[in-house]
Structures are given as structure tokens and as C-alpha cells.
Specification:
Shape: elongated
Radius of gyration: 21 Å
Distance between the termini: 33 Å
Number of helices: 2
Structural class: mainly alpha
Order of helices and strands: HH
Number of domains: 1
Helix content: over 70%
């Protein structure tokens, strides 16, 4: 389990740096172009929004799997008692 946890964390750290890179490039492009900086801002915030959404979805998926496993354990314990 410990190795899976580190792989999980490293995956999110990688995506964190990718989102940072995309955001910085988009904001720099918006600032440098000068005429339409809203596109850079929209791209940067969209990248962060998708990143946060992916993290939340992953946490919900893990919570559902844990709940499902707990329900199955309870069901199997109940069947064993009969």
C-alpha cells in the first residue's frame, strides 16, 4: 500500500507542475500580447479548475470504493453468522 500511495502522490505532483507550466505560459502570453489578456486568464483558470476537479473526482472515487468494500465486508460477516 505504501508504494501505491507514493505513486499516487507523484502522479498528482507531476500534474501540478504541468498545470503550473500551462498557467504561467498562458498568463505570460496574455501579459505580453497586451491587447487581449483575458484569453490567457481564462486558459490559466480553466487549467486550475480542471486540475482541482480531477483531484475531487479521484477522492470521491476512492471514498465510494472504500464504502463499497466496507458494505461487502459487513454483508459477508452477516452471511457467515447465519
Amino acid at each position: 500500500m505504501c508504494v501505491n500511495f507514493y505513486i499516487y502522490i507523484m502522479k498528482w505532483i507531476f500534474w501540478f507542475f504541468v498545470v503550473n507550466f500551462i498557467s504561467v505560459i498562458a498568463l505570460m502570453k496574455g501579459v505580453i500580447s497586451g491587447e487581449n489578456s483575458f484569453v490567457g486568464i481564462i486558459v490559466a483558470f480553466t487549467a486550475w479548475g480542471l486540475f482541482i476537479r480531477a483531484i475531487v473526482a479521484s477522492q470521491e472515487k476512492k471514498k465510494k470504493a472504500k464504502n463499497r468494500e466496507q458494505m461487502l465486508d459487513e454483508y459477508l460477516k452477516q452471511q457467515l453468522r447465519k
